[in-house]
Amino acid sequence: MDKEEALQPEAQTHKEWRPKEGLLGLILKPIYWFKMLSNELHWSFVLGVVIVYGVNQGVSIGLSRVSTQYYMKDEQKLQPSEAQVYFGLIQIPWIVKPLWGLLTDILPIFGYRRRPYFILAGFVGVSSMLMLALQKSLPLSAAILSLMAASAGVAIADVTIDACVTENSISHPSLAGDMQSLCGVSSSIGALVGFAISGFLVHLFGPKGVFGVLSIPAGMVILVGMILREPPVHNFAYRRVSRKFVDAGKAMWIALKCRDVWRPCLYMYLSLALGLNIHEGMFYWYTDEKAGPAFSQEVIGSIFSVGAAGSLFGVLLYQNVFKKHPFHHVLFWAQLLYGTSGLLDLVLVLRLNLRYGMPDYFFVVIDEAISRMIGRLKWMPLLVLSSKLCPSGIEGTFFALLMSIDHVGMLSSSWAGGLLLHILNVTRTQFSNLWLAILIRSFSRLLPIGLLFLIPRSDPNASILPTEMLKTKNRDEILESENMELASLVNSI
Hints:
By secondary structure, the protein is mostly helical. The chain has one domain (about 40-490): MFS general substrate transporter like domains (Growth Hormone, Chain: A, Up-down Bundle), CATH 1.20.1250.20. It has 23 helices and 2 strands. It has helices at about 5, 10-15, 20-40, 45-75, 80-90, 90-95, 95-105, 115-135, 140-170, 175-215, 215-225, 240-255, 260-275, 280-285, 295-320, 325-340, 345-350, 350-355, 360-385, 395-425, 435-445, 475-480, 490; strands at about 230, 485. The protein is globular and about 65 Å long. Mean pLDDT is about 80; it is low at about 1-15 and about 470-493.
């Protein structure tokens, strides 16, 4: 892509792909959509999103969630509340995403801003997964540190590709929803594949064996770093790095003081923190032979795979139905449904489904699909909104800051849920108060509806930030970013 091409306004480059009418048009619509994105945003961007979101995040999340849950339960013998807290600790590398964003934005390594960070992320992921897989009787502290390192590898790769997403959201604001849909579709399909095979792999190889399998997606991130073609940074003044860190910090602080930025940020944190996470209590109940339905590893994996399919359907629903609706309206109905759908767990735990002749597995599958679909519908507008809150020049760093706020919210939710399980004495074998935890969680999910006044009511396709915050200070830096692309191994030789 030429520099002049990269700077053309969206209105001059945008081309409408018009699929045929009827059934054929419906079948070909996703292909036309990918074609449009590849032409408008370059095929390398689309490929990078699919690899990072689809494989390194989607498939890995599907495999790691089930294997880590069984590892905590069967290998480390933890209580549900303890597992809940440790799962929160594993997510801490995602909270420091602004640090990874600052590094990738302002500190090139060996003359490149992106490639070394992909390679670093891949090596960290591979080494940590292999340690978990190959070390016998690993202490809990060492296991948690290894899982945190693996999480850090995924986070570093994520923040690098996020910079590309936010840059394109600024230059192509009307395609911001499409880009987030691409990320969501890739992640959901990858998670669907990961969850579908997770139970089988855990049964076949055990949790530690699956950790060894997880080194493969991390290795693919190394490959991305090797084939990434980007213009080298010449004569970079490393002495100015500290100054750039200070300038970036000031720019983020100025942006956060903007009313149009801090209000949505506050809502995003509170909406996640108030949705108490009691997943580990439900997982232990699912696998209990006395109080619960005693699901096997394969059944657990299949349940989560159906949930991933529900999440994918939520992305497609947002893309085709709700993308052009105001954020405020979508979030209101999504939050309302999110709270009420949580009561399905209450029906299951109280065994009301059996009174009406509905098998546990059938009911859990419906519950998981509906809950994940609504959760994704609630998450998609927040992602699109986040991409529109990033000032030009620090897009990657600021988007990472917004995502870290989200992860602080999820960490708060996880720890608050663990505390709730502990207070209600929900243990490995005691689930008599689990129904009360579900009831409290469902009610807390409704509370963010009262905070929707923090969300802008503007057109979702329009820019939210003031014009001066969208202007770039350095033309050359933007040219470097716009010309970055993935190249095939053949073309790179």
